[in-house]
Amino acid sequence: MMVSTADKRATFRRMHEAGCFVLPNPFDVGSAKALQRLGFKAIASTSAGFAWSIGKADNHVTVDEVLAHLTALAASVDIPVNADFEGGFAHDAEGVVANVMRAVATGIAGLSIEDSTGDKSNPLYARELAIARIKAARRAIDAAGGEVLLTGRCEAFLWGQADIKLVTDRLIAYAEAGADCLYAPGIKTREEIEAVVKAVAPKPVNLLIGASGLSLREAEALGVRRISVGGSLARVAWAGFMRAAKEMAEQGTFSELSAGYPGGELNKLFS
Length: 271
Hints:
11 helices, alpha/beta
């Protein structure tokens, strides 16, 4: 029997109350189902991983494409799905309200709104507008019952603004504006992580970890509540695909195909 959307949302909120958990990022229905079968208790979409899966660059998908993807992910698993909802696919607060309401209707348990503009010359929204956009997302979620968990993201480090004071100032403001969880992708040092955790306490913090990052236990010791990996799983999958495809295209040989995951095991996984 499928778990109800309300139950998924209640479970996701409880997961943020104590401890630290991994929130891996599938890029399609198959990878979502595989992660559930491997025992993960919640998953999160990845804007980059999804974009690549439909032959587009990150941040170049449409809101309709993302909503269809989120609907498919949420329906495919019995665990909560958190949505990477980029910047809400709108600049103004009212546009964010409209799109977040549509996102909530897909069956997700949580979503994030980031403060990057996509403009390299002016990468972050002005502070007051960024806060207004988080408030807009909060209004939309509350209008739908308030069950979806809202994550406020400060993208400064990803855009070359490695100013931890700017980041903590914004995350505190996003928490006050109604964000349930806070996230600053790009922070890596223990000092940066501790500064963010302390600044927004007692609200939970999401940490992005790549190949050389902290372990789950190390992150938990720093006060992190959840860990995501962004597009990393998608990049790992693409790495194997590109190695094999390039070998065939450039050398006319097929040795890389021997590294493939056994088809029989995949059939068992999805049976």
